[in-house]
Amino acid sequence: MNRLLKTQLKKAYGKEFDIESSSDEFKQFLTLINQAYNDFYIERQMLDHTLETSSKELTQNIRKSQESHELLKSVTDSIDSAIFYKDLELRYIGCNSHFAGLTGKSIDEIIGKNDYDLFDPSEAKHFQKIDTAIINNGSPEALKEWVTNTKGDKIYFSTVKSPLRNEKGQIIGVVGVARDLTREHEMEKELESKKLLLIQQGRQASMGEMIGNIAHQWRQPLNALALVIQKIGFYHKRGLLDEKKIDDTIDKSMGLINGMSTTIDDFREFFNPNKTKELFSVHDAIEKAHTIVESAFASHTIEYALEMPDDIKIDGYKNEFSQVIVNLLNNAKDVLIEKAVSPAYIKIKATKDNDRLHVEVCDNGGGIPDSVIEKIFDPYFSTKEEGKGTGIGLYMSKMIIEDHMKGKLRVSNKGGGACFTITI
Q1: Helix (H, G, I), strand (E, B) or coil at 141
Q2: How far apart are the C-alpha atoms of 318 and 285, rounded to whole Å?
Q3: pTM for the predicted model, two decimal places
Q4: Secondary structure in 3-state letters for 247-265
């Protein structure tokens, strides 16, 4: 008989209960009661075991969850970026210490807040507009943005935001990682300013040579204009100055003056940098560059040839492209003069291959020594004699082609001279 049942019977009768002296009906009743007690006892043991097991599993799960939470917090805090996540109502449900530091609040204070509680209203509106689009579209977005911290400082962030999903793949919010790029942004601006300064220095450095080219361009029309003026005096003294000669003289003089004025306009336009990109003719840009230097070429008997179709057009900065061509032509001219090459020539060849423009500027000046060919694009490096070169021209040319026009400028020796290749 079940021990618990025996105890209950003893309490009821005041002594050990003798089951054998009982009637058969009572024995049968006690047997059923005993079975019920046994079943209850077994079920109670099973329930106790289940509760004990569940309690242990729950404790283990809580411990694992705490460990995972601590690990996640440790990992996110070790990342040098602001990390945050929001629910579908764009309330913060978590972040790391870097993000908390940006807001000037603790992580517990941030939980449950929205952007309007933490940031400037205009910035909060911008953040929520992007977050809403990410939730609706279900796709991540990368962006650059300015954020004001608690000190009022503007911080430049590179931010990547993505939909936050549960284990079923359902979107339940937004998660973001924002990296502080303020210092890098300032350095880029500083570098860009230095590059622009170098370009300006390059323009100023070539001013003297340009003035010399203007003098070359003006010498012939000035001589012709002087002869025209002298003829007026000659005709006047001999009484031959009639109305026709006066008209002819005026027309010829104005033609010469207009030509000189055009020269000034060409040079003035050349030194006026483009502010915006434009679709321009490569042929016209190269011819414009040649016009700047053609008098110097003629005075030193340098042959010039241009081989290209007339219809090549590219999107970029026409004046800056022309300036690069002028720099390459002037460098080639200086080498040919210095080495007294005869016959001397400079050839430009331009071709278009699918969506790429290739321009070669080659000379027969003997080429560039192997010992310096890797350095010629370095700033302030020059192969010319002291005082005759600034070392800015080729560096500036490379910067214009590669930074401003997203192309390539390379150099090689071939055909008895140096050959510069522009690819855009």
Answers
A1: strand
A2: 6
A3: 0.47
A4: HHHHHHHHHHHHHHHHHHH
